[in-house]
Amino acid sequence: MQPEKFYYDNKIVRNFGIATIVWGIIGMTVGLIAAIQLFKPGMNMGNQYTTFGRIRPLHTNAVIFAFVGNAIFMGVYYSLQRLLKARMFSNFLSNVHFWGWQLIILSAVITLPLGLTTSHEYAELEWPIDIAITIIWVVFGINMFGTIFKRRERHLYVAIWFYIATFVTIAVLHIVNSFELPVSAFKSYMVYAGVQDALVQWWYGHNAVAFFLTTPYLGMMYYFLPKMANRPIYSYKLSILHFWALIFIYIWAGPHHLLYTTLPGWAQSLGIAFSIMLIAPSWGGMINGLLTLRGAWDKVRDDVVLKFMVVGLTAYGMATFEGPMLSLKQVNGLAHFTDWIVAHVHVGALGWNGFLTFAILYWLIPRIYKTNLYSKKMAGFHFWIGTLGILFYAIPMYWAGFTQGLMLKEFTPEGMLKYPNFLETTLRIIPMHVMRSIGGTFYLLGAIVMAYNLARTMMQGQLVANEAAESLPLEPVNAAAESGWHRRLERRPIQLMVGALIVILVGTVIELMPTLTISSNVPTIASVKPYTPLELQGRDIYIREGCSNCHSQTVRPFRSETERYGEYSKAGEFVYDHPFLWGSKRTGPDLAREGQKYGNAWHYNHMMDPRLMSPGSIMPNYDWLLTQTLDTTTTRSKINAMRTLGVPYAAGYENRANADLNKQAQDIADNLAKDKIKVKSDKEIIAIIAYLQRLGVDIKANKTANK
């Protein structure tokens, strides 16, 4: 049998590599601007499109889906071809995938600063873009499986198992989490409400970390680390255990983001139990990677690429130990909503994802350009400035998290809150935020140096767009020669995909279905009424401005929180919230009981210039709300959409909704006039005041009625 000649497609790898570098620098720069705004709010330059609330989701989407996403496709397209001894299935599909993905990212760059957002973390993009993501993901899947089917290598290496699990799980996550009812071309409401929406969001949010930031990177680790170290992977059996245990356990862990909320206790307990179990497979992968370097540690001293890999794997080990620890209720009660979580996330993002990406770029680019790296000294500088950047970022954020968490829970000997004003804790941790921005600057500087180094590397070499290779054709399956159930499974990609799908669906169905399908799991409260049309419009402005990025709307059952905010939250008060707005970080105080706490004039002045009412506040001015006219042409479609989702607006109410809206708006404007504030009733500020004044009022009424 004669070897067959074919050509690897390096051009698509190069394209994704360049996109990784460009979007990485853009995403990190946006993140740095957002970080600086947390101690210098004027860094939004008085522009509504660059406030923290709007660019924070732009930063997360740019880093996760643009930087990391392009890096995944770069690594998959390079390694898949060589593991399967085959060119990618279709050049056309490869190019559709590349350009489609870049257009999706560009659409995020445009829409998120405009305030077009669902508010679901890591899934903020609106429904037309969600459809585009689905189409491009299917294109990627067809291209990947098409390549697998025409392979010249019978055995599917461990990296490919992770790629297959990533494809199928991300598809399930994206589809389930994107059940939205369109209201207009760029506005939708989540089908789920309140507790149900929260459960789906954090089932998605945690597993986006698991199956976008982790499993494809583990696949790339299994391919690139042995190549870099010139050593075989430490243990094949450990890789089997690592793979199946990881994808089975990970899918259950999402509820640990919702501890002490109104999520049913059994779901919280499941999330905790599986989070603790997650340590074993996570560390199994880290150990398998680090032990691959046995006998090659002398290379680590001299090879900057291996340095990046070792620190990346170490960061993965640290993050995957800390995550389960943070799921313990005692720890979570202190850490949640603080900068401790920010530190934890960035140890994984900067160390694991960032450093592995840098290592792969430094190793891969010279090879496809058939040249040497332009400057090893620059790469060494990048490693050390990047490592310092992580330390200068993470340590101050841990410090800030511990400080704020403890301050918020502290009582005086007389039993009073020692720091009743949330702002006191914010001002105390500003120096840590300054240090964090310095760390981010270091890390970004390293990425810029890498970009220059790799650009010069490309210039001194020449891309081998079609790299010649040869391999024997795939021989027919000899069933008698196959030994071991997993060896047989590895050679059957569809069965492997189905197996992975079943494994991830077990936890999904058990956790989601009871809460989503049994309405009695979310008891209603008689005093909780649907939002008025003006409040609904104000809520949408609140979402547009990204207020939920800084303010939570759920009071946990701690004495420190009920003393500060009021009655702890109940599941029934969120039944009309499409989407839920519980938040995940408190840069400012919780707003769940904000209604009627202050007068309308206070809210007006606070939105115009927060420092007038809260000296030292780091909240930006929202003075454009005072002049922008509220768009009431959407009221009718919004009421209809909410009714479709089960909100009990009366039949035909959409026809008189704007009349009610105008009456309530005029009442607020008249009330403001009594405080010598002249503002027309059709301005956006009126709607957001109406919404803020509604928060928690129904629960207060219910409490009064039950006395």
TrEMBL record:
Catalytic activity: 4 Fe(II)-[cytochrome c] + O2 + 8 H(+)(in) = 4 Fe(III)-[cytochrome c] + 2 H2O + 4 H(+)(out)
Transmembrane segments: 12-38, 58-80, 92-115, 127-149, 156-176, 202-224, 236-253, 265-283, 304-321, 341-365, 377-399, 434-455, 496-516
Superkingdom of the organism of origin: Bacteria
Keywords: Cell membrane, Copper, Electron transport, Heme, Iron, Membrane, Metal-binding, Respiratory chain, Translocase, Transmembrane, Transmembrane helix, Transport
Keyword match Cell membrane: yes
Membrane topology, record value: Multi-pass membrane protein
Entry-linked InterPro entries: Cyt_c-like_dom, Cyt_c-like_dom_sf, Cyt_c_oxase-like_su1_dom, Cyt_c_oxase-like_su1_sf, Cyt_C_Oxase_1, Cyt_c_Oxase_su1_BS, Cyt_c_oxidase_cbb3_su1, Cyt_c_oxidase_monohaem-su/FixO
EC number: 7.1.1.9
Subcellular location: Cell membrane
Domain called Cytochrome c: residue spans: 533-696
Keyword set includes Transmembrane: yes
Start and end residues of each Cytochrome oxidase subunit I profile domain: 1-475
Annotated protein name in UniProt: cytochrome-c oxidase
Encoding gene per record: ccoN
